[in-house]
Amino acid sequence: MSTATVSLVEIAAEWRTARRLYPFYSALIREFGLNIPHCKELENPVDRSDREVLDRIHKWFAGVDGQVQVAQIRQLLQSQRFGEEESLRALLLRHLPQDQKDENLRDKLDYLLVQYFAAIAPHHPHDGDVTSSEVREALRPVLGHVDLRDVPFVKELDTIADAVDRCLTLAELLDSGLVELGRNAKRGLGKRYFDPASLVEITRFNFRLRLGFFRLMHSDLHAIRKAVQELEAIGVISVDCREAGLGSAEPLATLRTLCHHWKKPFREAYRAGQSFRQLGLVRKILTSTVIAQCARKTRASQDASAVDAGPAIAAPPAAVPGGVNDDHLEDSRPGSLEQILESISEQLFASKQKSMVSTVTLPHSKQLLSSWEVNAFIRGGDPSCRGIQRAVAARSFVAESAAKAREGDSNNLRAALQCAHVEAALIQEEVAKAKDRGDIDAAVSLAATGKRLLGVIEETEKLRA
User: Fold this and answer.
1) What DSSP letter does each residue of 79-131 carry, written as one string?
2) Rounded distance, CA 435 to CA 424, Å?
3) CA distance 373 to 82
4) Under a CB-based contact definition with an 8 Å cutoff, are residues 455 and 178 in contact?
5) Angle at the Cα of 175 from the Cα atoms of 170 and 180, rounded to 5 degrees
6) 172: three-class secondary structure by DSSP
7) How far lies 365's CA from each of 174, 342, 355, 376, in Å?
8) Helix (H), strand (E) counts: the chain
9) Can you point out the beta strands (E) in 194-260?
10) 3-state DSSP call for residue 195?
11) Residue-wise pLDDT tens digits, 82-106
């Protein structure tokens, strides 16, 4: 084949690619009001062999790329029919060769690669682990042949993904800071992010997070539907959902309908934090309402029995989870970090916890401990565990003091916040030490607990304001 023939074949291929991309880019201009004129050459049905025409077309695409963010690409791919494998492949082949490898390009590749892999290699969220070889083969049409090799950052990404797999609810995941840890790990790669071998491992990690969100979303939806059924069965027709941004008397029928719509945010992968957070709040509200209604029904039944039976000897106080009863909690009145630390330890050991998620109860508040936090109390024995223990105690101290402040007693609130700020700084130091000694598991767990502590501090300082 002559050089001229090869050139014509290449030009024809460029025109096919440009015409495949143009509807999407044109839609970006229209949907987001970009100050860029539409491309006259691509609106003309005639393909021209002039190289300068194709150069103008490439320059036009680059102009649009420079004004478009990944959120706009994501929104358009979800709202219109551009999510097919062919369109995603064309977008990737457009972005992968770009010379300006900046944060904007990284975010776009981060999203497009996992969308492409999901489109051609779908998995059930409870399937086994996704292998690097599987991802490499799926991405071959866009990355070409990639030699897999040991990449230093893979262990850190796998540790984060494993921690996501251990989460039981969306609320636990969102409060853990694991998603932010993953983003920071990818951001820290710099230019290494764009190496083909790195892109394979990053896509595998992103897809594992996607599966984790999918699993937890369905778990929350199942819990919501079950709670709605239980409440309707006892005659409840509405629930106060203002904490989740809904109505003060939100009809259960509406919540059931919303369950179907909540599946939609999953298409936004793990960036739809606010929608997922609302879902977790609705689950918490409904579950608490079911528990409260059952407790009310039980008390009414006991009162009726007491009236029928006449005077009786008072029953001993009921034990709370963890083997500590309400009287003991009220008498001990944890008022310092050390007292709260001791109370949490006692409850976890008394309930013979291993490493599952657990709730500990204080006089005025409750704390949900993640599996790695429970494990830190049960295992103990090293600086990482002690750092997690103290951060959990500080988080509980702030929550306890904030609950008392809402009841009118704000004496301990300032001291609790000061203590929490100190522990937040100390746990970051432990994160750095864990990274220095190569203990990625400990670093991830410490950072996640630190993130949860900072979240409680931030919310409580709003209360003071």
Assistant:
1) HTT--SHHHHHHHHHHHTT-S---HHHHHHHHHHHHHHHHHHS---TTS-PPP
2) 17
3) 43
4) no
5) 100
6) helix
7) 20, 16, 22, 21
8) 20, 6
9) 238-239, 250-251
10) coil
11) 767 888 899 999 999 887 888 999 9
Contact 279, 217 (CB under 8 A): yes
The Cα–Cα gap between 141 and 128 comes to 24
In this structure, how many other beta carbons lie within 10 angstroms of the beta carbon of residue 405? 19
Torsion of CA 81, 68, 177, 403, to 10 degrees: -90
Report the amino acid identity of residue 321. P
∠ CA 171-174-175, nearest 5°, is 80
Distance from chain centroid for Cα 210: 9
Which residues lie closer than 8 Å to 237 by C-beta, 6 or more apart? 251, 252
End-to-end CA distance of the chain: 76
The position carrying tokens 């062919």 is: 86
Q: In 10 A of CB 308, how many CB atoms?
A: 7
Task: Compute the distance between CA of residue 388 and CA of residue 386 in angstroms, rounded to an integer.
Answer: 5
Q: Residue 192 is encoded by which pair of tokens?
A: 């290494």
Compute the distance between CA of residue 266 and CA of residue 106 in angstroms, rounded to an integer. 21
How far is the C-alpha of 446 from the C-alpha of 74, rounded, in Å?
Answer: 32
**pLDDT at residue 285 is higher than 70:** yes
Domain boundaries, the chain: 1-99, 128-303, 322-465
Q: Give CA–CA dist 225/256, Å, rounded.
A: 6
The pair of three-digit structure tokens given for residue 131, joined into one six-digit string: 């292998």
CA 244/CA 284 separation, integer angstroms: 10
Strand, coil or helix: 146? coil
- Residue 116: exposed, middle, or buried by beta-carbon count in 10 A (0-12, 13-18, 19+)? buried
Is the pLDDT at 431 greater than 70, yes or no? yes
Contact 5, 75 (CB under 8 A): no
For 369, other C-beta atoms within 10 Å of its C-beta total 26
Strands 319-320 and 324-325: antiparallel
Nearest in space to 202 (alpha carbons), one of 130, 262, 103: 130
Q: Is 119:84 a contact under the CB 8 Å cutoff?
A: yes
Closest CA to 373 of 361, 394, 351, 358: 358
Cα 309 to Cα 12, 31, 316, 425: the distances in Å are: 93, 72, 18, 59
pLDDT digits (tens, 9 = 90+) for 340-366: 888 888 788 776 555 577 888 888 888
